[in-house]
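INPUT
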Amino acid sequence: MQRKTIGNILLLALTLCVACMWAFPIYWAVVTSIKPEHEVVTKTTFIPDVFNFSAYYFALFETNLAAWYVNSLITSIGVTIIVILISVMCAYALSQIVFPGRRLLYGIILASFMVPSQALVVSQFVLMYRFGLINSWGGIILPQLIIPVVVIVYKQFFDSVPKELREAAKLDGCGDFQILFRLYLPLNWGITTALAIITYIMAWNAFLWPFLVTNSEDMMTVTVGITQVDDAFGVKYARDMAVAILAAMPVALAYLLFQKRVTQALMLSSGIKG
Amino acid sequence: MSGIKLTGVSKSFGAVKVIHDVDIEIQQGEFAVFVGPSGCGKSTLLRMIAGLEETTGGQIRIDTEDVTRREASKRGVAMVFQSYALYPHLSVFDNMAFSLSIARRPKAEIDAKVRAAADILRLGDYLSHKPSQLSGGQRQRVAIGRAIVREPRVFLFDEPLSNLDAELRVKMRMEIARLHRQIGATMIYVTHDQVEAMTLADKIVVLKAGVVQQVGEPLELYRNPDNMFVAGFIGSPGMNFLKARVMSAAAGRLVVELEDAPGVPFDVPGTAGVPLGKGIFLGVRPEHIALGEREGSVPLKATAEFIEELGGTGYLHALTATGAEMTVECRGEERPHPKQAIRLSLDPKEMFAFSERGERLR
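OUTPUT
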């Protein structure tokens, strides 16, 4: 009994240590953002001598943060809605409709998992350039719509819906779109929420592509915009941290609000059916 | 309400033919039951009528309309599935109203039709419930209600009671019979349970390996089966079959002797002209065999194996000297012990003669 208690205490201590290691960078960023710049560069303090919010004032009123927020919000919501719509229809077709080449198509979607998105950026950039979509929301959104895992997860769930439900709906007069949107989607509403949240987070956090496709500061997303917060006299750590925290805020909030769904989505996308 | 006519209907999956040139006519308002063992094609045939399976050959007519290539929703049929197939995210009301809302019918009409169907099926108190909050019997009633609301030309039931326990099955069977009387619609019902078939049907279609074996009224099939398969399938417990040899044949009668009782010739109804000495099968139902010796009956020695006791009646399972399995209906108090040597009396007037290939020798 005593050995068990000691074991529990050791385990608790270990998990606390690991949790602290995870949390420390966030704590450090927050603390740095509310220190005066001279304190940041001159000494290492875990609690600021003076609480100074000038970095936040700078981030909010002297940068393009508002525009970056709007760009991030529009592109992330756009990506989320379009990815869900495309994926749900694609997954339904792959799962429920028999057509020539169905297996091949699914194989290609599975194989596209293995292609790193970085390998596609040059061709995507050329494509967007020819479409005239550089420095536009469309240019940021379009190449981010390829998320095979969403199709695969949806297909997995649609496969498990009893076929009699689809047949009953057919007899009730439904076409495939009605079956999808009135039956399959509501039946898998939890999955849709989870996948939408994780897609939104991925789109909000995307850096490489928005960085490549935008060079006008007005069209940048938050993740790209924070790289522009510099000063003629060098790096200002407190300001950088303040902008970074403000940039991460919507994702952090989304995670806190929908923690269960995000975990479910992560499990689903890693192949564990939650 | 409408009749159905299948003419030369067949179905193949690639090179494998699963339904073979089926010809059936079901009259308007008739309750037809497709019955047969698992894998005989009865559900496939029903699904072909529903339009859920493509028909490879032949013609399906509802009323006088050829619906063979018509979409499922445009055939005017409604189907009740074995698994109920209720939409789990919708309430009972919405489940029943689903087809009408898809057809964009006015709300007042939907409400009236759903409530009328709910009254018939005594579901009025459950309209706001979700399917998961209902019992198996209630779910099945909702599935039937969903079919009623559509006012179809034909109701199709695909083993609707298979998921219910024995008691509820009997109750639901009576409900379906009552519903048929009440609305008088044409109904086709698929089951592997011959008791359900016998109790519900106006007409039974017996299927085996995609081939219609016999079509007729329940008692006609019971009393006058066309072949050994129908004779064995219809009736519970099934008919007993014994090997016999033809001694002589004349004027619709066959003089035969059982392999298990040589030297005891007797005559049974059968086709004249069967070659003498030819092996045939004789079928006799459990209720036409008595324990002990009876005058005018065919005596048979056997060994008792075990008894299925049902209270008033018991079914004795016995083995003859040649190893033929026999089931004997025992009434009254008399019950042999296992392994006890017994004598059985078979009523020759109630015997059916079948050829070696299983065809009835009339």
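end of record. Chain A has one domain: 57-269.
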